Amino acid sequence: MPTKADSIEPELAEFLTSSQAAKRLSLSMATIQKLVDNNVLQAWKTSGGHRRISLASVLNYQNTQNFTDLPRTNADACAKVMVVIESPEQINRLKQEMTPSNLPLQVSFFESMTEALLELLNDKHDLLVAQLSTPRRQQEKLLEVLQKFMGSRHTVAHCLILTSEADLLPPAPLPGTSPVSIQVLNRELSMVWLSAYLSGFVAQRRN
C-alpha cells in the first residue's frame, strides 16, 4: 500500500510536460513517447494520469545531440543522409524497423567507411552517421582521415561518430585550415535513437 512519502510528487520545476519536452527538443510528441518508452527520457505519471518528464534527462539528451554546429540549408530540400554500420545483420534490422515518415530525408546504408567515402567522391551529402566497432587506434586514424577528407572535399556537411570509446575526441583542427563538423558520441546506434536524432537534425535545418 502506498505510503505518504510515495504519494509526494517531485518539484514541478524539475519536470516538463510531454509538449514542453517536445518543444524544447524540437521533436514530435510521437518521438517523445518513443524516447520515454525506451527509457531515454525518464518520466512518471501524476495521480491524474498526466505524464511528467525529468528535466535533467531532457537536458542530458539535448546535450548529447548538440545540433548547434550543424549547417542550416533550405528547409524544403531533401537532406541526404549516410549511415555506416559494419554489420550486415544490424543494417537489415534497421531497414526493417525504419518506417516511412514525412521527414525530408534520403537515407542510404553502407557496410564500411570506405564505401561511404567512395560515394562521397561522387555525390554530396548533408550528414554521415557511423557506428564504429574497430579497435581504438583504428578509430583515431579514421577520424584523422575524415577530418582531411571533409576539409578538402567538402562533400559532407556534418559527420557523427558513435563509439564505445568513452573519451574518444575529434582531432584538433589542422593549422591554417577551417574546423570541420565532426561530432563523437559514446553510445550504441538504435532505430529509436536514430529516428530522434534525424528528427532533431531536420528541425535544426528548418530554424
Task: Briefly characterize the structure.
The chain has helices at residues 4-7, 18-25, 29-37, 55-65, 88-97, 113-120, 136-153, 191-206, and strands at 15-16, 43-45, 51-54, 79-85, 105-110, 125-131, 156-163, 182-186.
Reported by name, the CATH topology of the largest domain is Rossmann fold
What is the percentage of strand-forming residues?
Answer: 15-25%
Give the number of DSSP strands. Answer: 8
Strand order of the largest sheet: 5-4-6-7-8
Number of helical segments with 4 or more residues: 8
Rounded average pLDDT: 79
Global structural class:
alpha/beta
Alpha-carbon distance between the termini?
49 Å
Helix proportion? 40-55%
Largest sheet: 5 strands, parallel
Kindly report the name of the CATH homologous superfamily of the largest domain.
Response regulator
Radius of gyration: 19 Å
* Gross morphology: globular
How many domains make up the 3D coordinates? 2
CATH level 1 name of the largest domain: Alpha Beta
Which runs of at least 5 residues are low in confidence (pLDDT < 50)? Answer: 1-13
What is the element string, with H for helices and E for strands? Answer: HEHHEEHEHEHEHEEH
